Amino acid sequence: MLHMVRFIKKRQNIIFPFLDIALNVVNYFFQLYLSWNLLPQQYGTINSLLSFSAILFVLGISFQTLTAKKVSSGHYSADTFKSIYLSTLYFLLPILLGTLILAKPIVRFLRSDYVSLLFLIVIFAFNLYLSIFRGIFQGNHQYLHLNISFYIETFVKLIAIFWLFSYRKNVHIALISILLGMVFSFFYGFLTNSKMKKFISVDHSIKTSVRQIFNQSISIYIANFFIYFFTSIDMLIINYFLPQVSGIYAVIQKYSQLILATSFSIITVFIPTFSANYNDKIKLRSIVKKAFLLFALLSLIALLGYYFILPYTVSIFFSTKYEEAANYLFFSCIAYIFLVSCFLAINVFIVLEKKRYLLYLLITSVFMLLLFLLHHESILSIIFIQILCYLLMFIFLIARLTKELKE
């Protein structure tokens, strides 16, 4: 038994993606259950809310990346940990204040209500501090703890939705279930990390101020903001301009996000490896090439699956009322392949602490948003705009990354 435990711990980085992908299959059932129990327009609304929350979650993802980078590079102590926590306030308070001030237009844009927005704010706060604990797991290569954290969140969420939907079925109940999953996972992270003595003992040779942490986190936050902007804005646009097909588009997005979830699982494992080889450009360049080759192989498999297999599963999994979504899965797959390839490049830039690439993200987001506002006649027009924008962004990012790795 002890031998098996040691075997698993030594191969956590290999086991993590498989467990994370398996969890995404379980998590996918949460979406299926929502689609079965909510009206199509309600299902579109909840996915619009989740897309908005994904943009808010950028802060948590950013601090997870920053914490993982600090831990994996060895520049970590209790002082740093406290500084990371305190620096979150520089972001958290303005975001909360801005959300409250703009509550009315936000609610109108999301076609929702103030109670749902309140739930999103509370979920956002828990996610932020939970993400820091996950950053410690990730940076310390404790991928099994990271898996457990995600599994707790997902299974508590599922248990809660099964139980609460037996009494009432609406958007608020779905958000409460998500919140409960986040809360339980937060306490697991808190209790587990409080026992890690090496993070509690203060290393007085490392004095990282809150302001320094804040400055380091800005570029990571901006990069992650664009990442989640790209994965959320399409759902928000559809829900606002084409609410009658928002449920159909939500199903398309759920299928496309299978590519996203798989890619993020792999990138999570690569980030500490990138960081550990930060000063060795030759070795880093070799690892980055292998990562892109792996993504190319997975992209080919995804294209085959989304063309020949997955369209036939829509009516089986989501029921016949969503079967129109099958017509768009292959095109959405193409868009997301370019997008996740961009995400891989972005994470290499984050490790290299380069910032010029952010201009490409800004230009792409503005260009895409402008095209969305001008051409939102149908689902197909939205997807074609995504393909065009993500392809152009990928070309510019790869050109820039190639130059950075050669210097």
From TrEMBL:
Cell compartment(s), UniProt: Cell membrane
Membrane topology annotation: Multi-pass membrane protein
GO cellular component terms listed in the entry, alphabetical order: plasma membrane
A matching Pfam family: Polysacc_synt
Keyword Cell membrane included in the entry's annotation: yes
Transmembrane segments: 12-30, 42-63, 84-102, 114-132, 144-165, 171-191, 218-238, 258-279, 291-309, 329-350, 357-374, 380-399
Keywords: Cell membrane, Membrane, Transmembrane, Transmembrane helix
PANTHER family: PSMA PROTEIN, PST FAMILY PREDICTED COLANIC ACID TRANSPORTER
Protein's recorded name: Transporter
Organism annotation: Clostridium manihotivorum
Lineage: Bacteria, Bacillati, Bacillota, Clostridia, Eubacteriales
